[in-house]
Structure formats: C-alpha cells, structure tokens
Amino acid sequence: MKYRAIANLIKTNQDTNMHNYSDYFPVRSPRDNLDVVPLLHDGLMREGPRTLLDFNGARASFDDMAKRVGAMQAWLDAKGICRGDRVALMLENGLDHIALIYALMLSGVVWVPVNTRLKGPGIDYLLGHCKPTLFIAQHEFAEVLSEPGLQSRLVWLEEVQLTVQQMPAEGRLLQAAPVKADDTLCLIYTSGTTGAPKGVVFTHRMMRIASEATLIVSGAGAGDRMFVWEPLCHIGGAQMMLVPFLQQVELHIVERFSASRFWQQIETSQATHLHYLGGILDILMQLPEQPASHTLRVAWGAGVSVKAWDAVIARLQLNLRECYGMTEGSSFTTVNASGKPGSIGRALPWLKVELLDDHDQPVATGDIGHIVVSSAIDGTFLPQYLDNPEASAAAVRNGKLYTGDSARMDQDGDLFFVGRRTDSMRVRGENVSAWEIERVFVTHPAVAAAAAIGIDSAIGEQEIMLHVQFKPGFDVLFSDLAQWAESRLASYQMPRYFLETAAFELTLSERIKKHLLPRGVELAWDRRAQSPSAVFDKQRRDIPDSAKNQ
Predict the structure, then answer these.
(1) Partners of residue 347 on adjacent β-strands
(2) 461 partner at 20 to 30 Å CA-CA among 104, 149, 297, 504?
(3) In total, how many domains does the chain have?
(4) Which of 541, 544, 507 has its CA nearest to residue 126?
C-alpha cells in the first residue's frame, strides 16, 4: 500500500472540508467530512490508555488497539493489498478480528464480512460474486472451506497472528489512507424474500451515520457500557465499532449470545445497554430465573410487540427503545423515544418517512403503506447493490429509499411496523402481518421457529398457512397448538393450515426463505376440517420427514 504521512494527509486530503450537517451531528475535527478515517485514526492516536473495549474479560485500550491495527496494516501491505482491494473475513468475534476491520477501514480496503454460519454453496456464491483479493478465515471453518478454488486466496487467521507477533515494533506504525466519504467501506450481503443475496455497497459515510445513529437510538452517554453479542459480520455488530470514538462509552464484546451465560456476563461487564434482534428478549423472558437486580438500563432494537411490551419491561427491569431501519439506509430510520408500546417511533431528525400506496400517493392515517424514506444528508442510502442494476434502481428512486416494508401511522404521528410488503396477507377484509402471527407462535414452548404465508383461497383473498419447526423432543398436536393460539390472536390472524417442517432454509440475515416454502394444502392440517383433529394430526405424524418439506 502507498500511504501519505498523516501530517501531509491533513494538508492535502481532498476531504479537508468539514461537513455541513452540524444540525444533526457534531463536527468532531477540522477534517471531519462525516466519514470514518479521520475519526478512527485520531481516536487511536490520541485516546491513549482509555478503555476502548473488553472482549471476554480481556481489556483493550486505544493504545493497545492502535498497535494491533498498525501491525495488521503492515501485514496487509506486505501481502500487496492496496486501497480499493476487497478482503473477505470469515471470523468469530475477537480482538484480532476487530483489529483487522479497523486496519481495512484505515487503509481504504473494502471489507467483505462473511457469515460464519454459511456452508459451501453460500460461501461459493458470495466469493464468486464479490471476487475478493484475499480471504482470511479461522481454522475451525476448514471443513467448509476445502474447495480447491479457494486455496489461492485463503489465509488462516492463525498464520496472520503468528506473523504479526514476530513483526518488529517499527513496522507497526498506524497509517491513514486518503479515503473519501463516498468510497466503499464494506460489502454487506443481505437477502429479501426472493432471488440471490444482494451485496449492499456500504460507504464510509453510511458507516459513520450508522454509528452516530447508534448513539441516538440507544440513548447511550458518557460512562455507559454497551454489551455486544452480535457477530461482527452483521450490521448490528459492525455499526458498534465506531461508537467509542464518538462518545466515552465502552464496548463489552462476547463471541455470541448465550442464554445460560447472559446474566453472568452482564454482571461481570456491568453493561448498561443491550441491543436486541430477533428473539433475544423472548429467550430472556423464558428463563426460569431473573436476577433481583442488574446494571442494564436500556434495551434497544427491533421486535417487541405491543402485547409483550409491558411484560418485557416488568420482567427484565429495563427501558425499551424500539427502532426500525435497514442496511441500505445506513441501518437506522426511526426510534421510539416516547415509550409508546409497540411503536417503532418517528423518523430520525435528518430523515423523512412517507407511507405510500402502490401509486406513490400518501395513505390515510391508520392505513398501511409502503415505508419510503428521504434524507437531508447526501450519501445516507446505498449507492448501489454490487453488480445488480435492476435491484439498485428499484431500491432508490428519485433520491428516496423504497424499503419494501409496510407500516401504519397513528393519530399522534407514531409509526407501527407491519411487515414486509411481500410478507403480509389479505384475509377477510383485513391486512394481516405475518410477523404478528409468527411472534405469537414462537413463544410456545414447543415451537423453535414459525413462518406464516398467504395462499389462495377458494372464496377470494387469502388463507393463512403456518409452517412450524418444533423443538427436539416435543410432540404437540396441531389441534392443541391452534387452541393455544386462539386466545392470543384475532380470528382473522388465525392460520387455517398448519404444516410441519424439519428445518427452515435461512438467508444470510437469518430470515426464513419464504419463497421456498411449499404452498400446497394436501399434507397440511386444516383447522376447519370436519374430521376429528387428532386423526389429521396422526396423518401429519405418519408423513416421512423428507415429504414434509416438499
């Protein structure tokens, strides 16, 4: 890599002008163009002994991390990696993983996070699509990385660590490349309900906005400690990495979420803020014991329903800050700062949210509409999906981000998430969100996962089919499951058909690939059937597992 000395960089970098968005975000240095490199470099060079993060009890100061990052930059330089190259990382959370990410950011190299749960075909697609110059992985993934075609660009993290440890101290000087705000920082692969995964081109400005928004959405301030369980290959983890450079907070990072160790980890870290996704809070709610007291004050994220809101606050003893966003829009769009149960709140200050119909006209208050977002800040939305002009043109039109999600707004102006536009149904005159149905069924102790889809009805509109994956060792009749749900769902939300699946196929962002689910009712249990329910349940159990997923 070819770098300018930082002193010359300050004088000659094209991005020396301060950003013009001080109505929304502080100008943090004379070189602050609402980007990443000056912020990251200055923090590592100036914050010294202050704690940056703690990983599994191992503390790392800004000084410590600066040395690690400088060494990783030197290693990348020795490998011939240049600004604009792509480097894929398939790594578990860890100090060297973090140092590598910081090194890539500072060097202007494009980071390609690879989900550690991917198997052969998924890895082959991602690497074949983005074509990284280098692929760094851990030995524990050797079995899924045995393809001969990978070997020419694959380097094991353990080899990198050994080389870096032997590197002389003078070879570890921190460098900062002349990176622009609209340069690509990473490629984050995300999936919708159809088609192949899409590579979101995520710029330096987008990462900076996501990090600034994290502070606003979480409400974190000086002295707070943020518990990070998300994998760094996910935007939920990646957006946290710059937060300590914006505010005097600490990150307390673990390898992954563990229900059995969670409260002990909170006690050890004295964490104050928890980011939640998916069923994290549901899992915590189902733990048989909760601590009498703890340090967590705020849980912020997405997925708490209006019905569960008060119960979560009472049992977990914390405040909720529900939000909404997507990777394509710098991660965050709204935040519920008022505490209204079930609401995703209102648009962040630099954003405007419109709810539009299929003709791009505003819907009436209370009606469901397409979430369309515009921004007062240039570069908030993805510039493109990598090598996918059709999807890029559909996502951003006339400067607005068309999210593909639906919501409604109440009389107070607060938004309520409804679901994916392709993930909702019309049943007996009512718009029904699959998310609302699934959220209920996954709270049943026997249900591991559930997916609701709409199928054609003989009398018009749609019927609801629920695909259910049961937990190992549970044997529940669908008639009993339906009876259990009747007290928890409105009549129009109740599925008519139930079908068991051994396992769901998931996208890179851990969503069920609903477009692959069977829609035939021949093998399904019909809640309205005249025959005794036990007979139909027995028929379901007599079906071989291989047939249940056809």
Answers:
(1) 334
(2) 504
(3) 2
(4) 507
